[in-house]
Amino acid sequence: MNLLTKNTWQQHLGYAVKIGIGSALAILLAELLGLNYAASAGIITLLTISTTKVQTWRLCVQRVGTFLVTVLLAFLIQPIHHLEWISYGVILVLLAFGLSARNLLPTLSVNAVVLTHLIAGNALTSTAIFNEFCLLVIGLVIAIVVNHFQHYESQKKYLDYCRQTSEKKFKVIFEKLAVYLANSEIQNHVWDDIINLEKELHHYTQVAFAYQQNRLPVTDDFYLDYFEMRTQQCNVLHNLHYEIKKLRLIKRDSAVIVTFLNEIATHFGELSQPIHQLQMVDQLVQKMEETPLPQTKEEFLRKARLYHILMDLEEFLIFKKRFLQKHHPEKVAAYEAELAIEE
Description:
The structure is a single chain. This protein has 2 domains: 3-149, no CATH class; 153-340, Up-down Bundle (Four Helix Bundle (Hemerythrin (Met), subunit A)). It is 80% helix and 0% strand. The chain has 14 helices and no strands. Helix 3 packs across helix 4, helix 7 (152-182) runs antiparallel to helix 8 and helix 7 runs antiparallel to helix 11 (251-266). Keywords: Cell membrane, Membrane, Transmembrane, Transmembrane helix. InterPro entries: ArAE_1, ArAE_1_C, ArAE_1_C_sf, UPF0421.
């Protein structure tokens, strides 16, 4: 079983265990307190446990707020409570409309159950409302407590695996781009590789976001920033498609970019410093500026295309530099100091 499959099964199993244990505990506590409709506490816990701690807390706050609104609507529609099905329908229409307008529809199911308890048999009394509120509090508290337990190490291990996988694929893509440019006859499907990598990075970013949300209040945005950086770099490669397709027909210009692409592939990795490569871009641009002005339209387009590719590759490297400056500032400073001494 590979790490991807193992992590997926662990997530599914962990989520199922939380729901099972949490719902059972909520029902047990409600029964011990002698509350009516004790099973509702378990349902509230089931519907409140989310994939991240932040989402669970947010849903808890929303449930409390919408519960108060539901009780208020029940009081306002009280004159027609002798027609239970009509009052239930009217309140539900108003409630669903308001929740939909405020993007709070996930809270509707619990409030619908609360309504059935309050309206059935004209049970809209302070005792009934207190009973429903206690069920809500029990369900929410148990959901928060149960969802507090997160297997951070396995999540981190999986994210490290995703990071290493994406770096290997980026390196292969740069090697393929270099071959694609060097030989105009080769079709190595490198652009399909870029599209597939972009899809994978989208998934990795979602996993990293969930990890970050589960780590709060501890600030741990390394993985989220990393995969967002890689996604931005992937977008840059997409933008290069048309220009590189044209450039591969001009051997003299393509040779310059091929050398640079191989340089990036050779030093590709999380901690590899892009400073030297950025200096290479500056040197190449400076050489272009020193060449005579283009005399024909074809020469102008050729030079503009080469300049555009270099600027895109510079942007690719700048994304990496910003990431390192945020998460490894001491390594960037040490490398820059080393370069300064060499100069």
